[in-house]
TrEMBL record:
The chain crosses the membrane at residues 258-279. This is DUF2207 domain-containing protein. It comes from Paenibacillus plantarum. It comes from the Bacteria. Keywords: Membrane, Transmembrane, Transmembrane helix.
Amino acid sequence: MKLIKLIPLLIGTMLLLLSAQPLFLMGQEMIIGSRVNRDFTFEHIYVNFMKLGKVEILGRGAPIPVDRISVENYIADGNDNKAIHTIEEYTDMNRRDDATRLTYTRVYKWEGQTIEIADQFQSGVFNESSREQANLQMTINHKDWSVEGPVLVRPNFLDDNRYHGYFGIMTVEEKGIEKFVVIQRISGTAFTPDKNLSWRILSVNSDGQVEEDRFTFDELGEVPQRVNMINLTSTSPSAVGYQSDILLGWPSLIFPLAYPYGTALVGLIFVVIGLVIGFRTFRE
């Protein structure tokens, strides 16, 4: 008879144990995310959207112009490096029949620092599906910071879509100090499991000093702000978590409502009922 009275307590304990791991992982992600967002301010920098030379950050549903950063666009045919000011100029220079290799250069200027990004592509008529594989050439204050590791270039675009999934720019502020940050995926363009992905982050100080941080997927969570930078700039095939991906899926009635929230709540109720029954039995 006494064993029967323990059944609610046993069921509740089993349900709580079953729910413990996902609840721990979810809590861990929330706590780390809260700390990172408390200590850092991240602003993803968008450029050339609809109009060359525009620099914006994404506000609450609408872009906000940025005046502390400027961007210039150039296209080169051999040694002829020409500034382009409209998307139509870019398109007209590309429409040629000689299959010439062209170089597109984007120049960011921030706090007296100059960051240049360049790629080579073949002239022709493009559409939104056009892709070319190329190495990004990168200089910071005229010092070469290029690395081997091709990216997919979308020559039809001059905004963030040009290097989508491989390259992004942002500013990061910590303790009132702002840095210009470049994020680049350097593990190549071939389809690969997440464990084979790798990135580098270049942080530029207002005095011109540059810090480079290279890491693999397995090392990603060692510095939690890396996760925010990669997710905000979309420099990964899919979103990444701090220690797990448990919060990255779309919520449904089954997960996390039924499990682990529902099972944990039911388990807690059964444990309380079991403890009340046990207390009363002890008093008798």
